[in-house]
Protein 1
Amino acid sequence: MIDRCPGSDLVEGALLSRAVSALALLALGIQLSGCANIGDSFASAAFVDPAKYDMMDCKQLEAERKSLAARTAELRGLIEKAKTGSGGTVVSELAYGNDYISVRASTKLVEENWERSKCVASAVVVTPAEPAAPAVGARKRASVAR
């Protein structure tokens, strides 16, 4: 008969417990990693009211598109800036993740309504700048020179 070391059952139990814990953490990590890319999926619709933009006309939708594009760019900049610090990825997700998902979902809904309404972007009207008035000192010098 093979004699076992006293306490070997405890060692085997601890190893088994560690292995189970490691597998549970791995499974949890895999499940949660799917949440990182929620931005453009069906679940992002939970962040925005689907009927929010239904009653808007093209002019209102265009203003909303510009506003959302500016906010998206601002959030991207803030996220990139936060990522440069220590623990930046976690900090950027905690601070700006939900807002970014909400803005992206809103943008998607605005674009859908824009296309459904067959809107066309308005042309940018460029107004000529007024000629600059001469400086006060320039008038005095011109009158003194005469």
Note: The mean pLDDT is 75.
Protein 2
Amino acid sequence: MRTPNLTPMSLDGLTRKIAGLGIPGLVLLIAVSATGYTGAAAVTTALSALGPFGMIGGIGTLALTGLISAGITRYGVEKIFESVMNQLVDQGHTRAEIIRQIESYPISEGLKLKLKERVNGYFDED
């Protein structure tokens, strides 16, 4: 039986690997550190905690995080927010519906307030 190579990786090598993942790499790093576990148990627990439906949801969340961060880099938050709001309105969502949905999310009150301010600002511009 072959013994796995457990040679420690240099900090620079580890940093390059995490940076290669981009923002999702940072999200996964923090999620893993928050589990209190090490090794595969830490990764499994972190992925399960990141999204719905266990590890698969966590992987999807990381992929979506990467997509969103790449979009913000390319287009900026303002342009993406306006485009998403345009889509929601085109789909028939009203200001009240969007605000009600924001209120139902299990997020901080501060984030809810910021989101509602942005939504109200969008509708007030029209």
Note: The CA atoms of residues 51 and 92 lie 27 Å apart.
